[in-house]
Design brief:
Residues 29-45 have a biased composition (Basic and acidic residues). The chain has 45 residues and is mainly alpha-helical. The chain is built from one helix and no strands.
């Protein structure tokens, strides 16, 4: 039973780590997309 509880704690910690990593990658992607939009030439009016 203790092994299972420890495994659950380990998996929960891994989930938190992966969620933080995913959040960081999503923010980086948003920043890069924003940068690309700002580099575009304005549309002709």
């Amino acid at each position: 039973m203790r092994r299972l509880q420890q495994r659950i704690r380990d998996l929960e910690a891994e989930l938190i780590r992966l969620q933080a990593q995913n959040d960081a990658l999503a923010a980086q992607t948003r920043d890069e997309a924003r940068g690309r939009l700002q580099e575009r030439e304005p549309a002709l009016t």
